[in-house]
Amino acid sequence: MQFSKALENDGIILLDGAIGTELDKRGLMGRASNNLDAPQVVLEIQREYAACGCDTLTTNTLTMNRIFIETHNLGISVRDVNKAGVELARQAAGKDRYVLGNISSTGQLLEPYGTYKESQFYDSFKEQAEILAESGVDGFLIETIFDLREAMCALRACKENFSLPVIVSIAFTTEEKGGRTMMGNSAEQCAKSLADAGADVIGANCGDLDPAQMAVVVSLLKSATTLPILAQPNAGRPKLVGDKTVFEMTPEPFAAGIAECLGAGARLVGGCCGTSPEHIRAVAGILGQK
């Protein structure tokens, strides 16, 4: 079944959890360059997620667009790192799971807050999406973006050039005042703008919210659109311990928070920063009970 057909069904779709923080646990920096430098470790993590019962795996290609790679002096090929990311996820997914091409922020700001034009963001996202599509993804997952304008650039780059489904997930700073991003975009504004631009799924991930707070944002998104809603919270709110950001929520309360997100209207669920295969297995458990 094509991923687009799966989205038309009423069933819950379970995504995977974090890759970056899992790489950190293994002593590697949580960057997609590990697709080239430590592919077996990336493959091991994705196989662990596949064994948890999830329906989709996400490529380890977060922020691997040209602008991010060049402004952060990573010294890696845009094509090589994205192609490898799809190949690894596809190996782990086998024939029974979908693979979503992961696209995220450039790490820069648009004018007038920064120096970049929307056309530059669009071109950077289009290049990455083209490589992901050519490499065989089943859809795109645009996520962890704090600026609606940047999300719109990524969405247009995908929808105007490729026929694959596109999920757009925004990082919210607060669930109060209608849900707000760091740039002040409301949940309603995000839902309506992204829906009008052709998104197939709209959601929330990462940010500064715990799963219960994300359930509030899910309800706000749900009230603003008829599209399926995605929820991928972190393993609790981030805490700074020394010079490290940590996420302390264990699998059981995380799964309980996902249950709240489902109750608020989410149809696609998974985990973001700090979540592990154990967190996703706990979510699979509650889905089995339902």
Model description:
The chain is an alpha/beta fold. The protein has a single domain, classed as Homocysteine-binding-like domain (TIM Barrel, Alpha-Beta Barrel). Helix content is 45%, strand content 14%. It has helices spanning 3-8, 20-25, 34-37, 39-50, 66-71, 78-93, 118-135, 148-159, 187-196, 211-224, 251-264, 277-289; strands spanning 13-14, 56-58, 98-103, 139-145, 166-170, 201-205, 229-232, 239-241, 244-246, 268-269. The strands form two sheets. An eight-stranded parallel β-sheet has the order 1-10-7-6-5-4-3-2. A two-stranded antiparallel sheet has the order 8-9. α4 runs parallel beside α6, α7 (118-135) packs across α8 and α11 (251-264) crosses α12 (277-289). The protein is globular, with a radius of gyration of 17 Å.
Q: Superfamily at the CATH H level?
A: Homocysteine-binding-like domain
Tell me the number of helical segments per DSSP (H or I, 4 or more residues long).
Answer: 12
Cα distance spanning the termini: 23 Å
The fraction of residues assigned to DSSP E strands is: 5-15%
Helix/strand order = HEHHHEHHEHEHEHEHEEEHEH
**Number of folding domains?**
1
The name CATH uses for the topology is TIM Barrel
Task: Output the CATH class name.
Answer: Alpha Beta
Shape: globular
- The proportion of residues forming helix, as a percent range, comes to 40-55%
Please state the second-level CATH architecture.
Alpha-Beta Barrel
Low-confidence stretches: none
Q: Name the quaternary structure.
A: single chain
